[in-house]
Design a protein that fits this description.
Elements lengths: L4 H21 L1 H19 L4 H31 L5 H36 L2
Helix pairs in contact: 2-3, 3-4
């Protein structure tokens, strides 16, 4: 058999366990999930086109993946050198900055896409 569905189900179970753990422990991830859900609702409420939906979806995924990566880096640096070395703090700060840049980029994409639709509401 090409695909072992029991193993596949276990793999998905582990992945969802990891996502649940990050959602439980990381406030920023919960905020980003909430905003992502809001953006998805607005995408359909405003009837955005396919390209606009794709760009917003890509921005959402980028921010969430980077936040998950940030969580990984934080845990790895804590295990390897828990707050004993200046580089640990710098690595965590740089990774947080990476997520911040992506979040601002996603916000800019959202404003550029939603602005005409929101402006029409006030005309």
């Amino acid at each position: 058999m090409l695909i072992d569905f029991r193993q596949l189900r276990k793999s998905f179970s582990y992945a969802f366990k990891g996502l649940t753990q990050v959602a439980r422990e990381e406030q920023n991830f919960r905020i980003q999930l909430f905003v992502a859900g809001l953006v998805v609702v607005l995408m359909f409420a405003f009837g955005l086109g396919g390209t606009e939906k794709a760009l917003l979806t890509l921005a959402i995924v980028l921010v969430l993946v980077l936040e998950l990566t940030n969580s990984i880096f934080e845990r790895m640096t804590d295990v390897l050198k828990p707050r004993l070395h200046q580089y640990v703090r710098e690595i965590k700060d740089i990774m947080a900055g990476t997520v911040l840049v992506a979040s601002f980029g996603a916000l800019l994409i959202g404003v550029l896409i939603f602005w005409p639709y929101v402006a029409r509401l006030f005309q």
